[in-house]
Amino acid sequence: MMNEEYINNVKELINRQESEAVKEQLANLHPADIAELCNELNAEEARFVYCLLDNETAADVLIEVDEDVRKEFLEVLPSETIAKQFVDYMDTDDAVDLMRELDEDKQEEVLSHIEDIEQAGDIVDLLKYDEDTAGGLMGTEMVIVNENWSMPECLKEMRQQAEKLDEIYYVYVIDDDGRLRGVFPLKKMITSPSISKVKHVMKKDPFSV
Description:
It is built from 14 helices and three strands. By secondary structure, it is mainly alpha-helical. It has two domains: 134 residues, MgtE N-terminal fold; 69 residues, CBS-domain. Strand 1, helix 12 and strand 2 form a beta-alpha-beta unit. Helix 3 packs across helix 5, helix 4 packs across helix 6 and helix 8 packs across helix 10. This is Magnesium transporter MgtE. GO terms for molecular function: magnesium ion transmembrane transporter activity. Pfam families: CBS (PF00571), MgtE_N (PF03448). It comes from termite gut metagenome.
């Protein structure tokens, strides 16, 4: 249980540089709980904890910690570490949220260390959007279609985009200016007449998904 006694005990172990003992304390914790712990630590103590985590857990924890704690932590981390220990293990939209907390120079440095060229390109594309635009809200793991397309056009495009995805439940609908207009449940594609336009059968409130 995360209480003051537990936190103080971890801090003491960190101050004594007892890595194995700290690992034992973290072993059964969910990333959200480790994030809660890190919120109570200073930057150097949090850095000690992060160095003990596997890359995937560390990436999850970094997303969960308070924004001010994350920002302070990112400031002391080398760009290569951010790229290879965090960004490489994040979904694209989470990686973009993280990158937005860096200044432009450090963003470029981090991008230069990302080995997956396609992921780096996706991040660059999404960084061009404001957070509240369709591109900024959706991420690249989504199928996107135009509201003016017919069902056959929609299905053709969905098949092309879906080759890179593991699971699809909703298709996101944009207008000609790239603004998010709604979502399109896959069931609608099956049950709607082929002459129907996407905009006539989509759900117009994308944030209710």
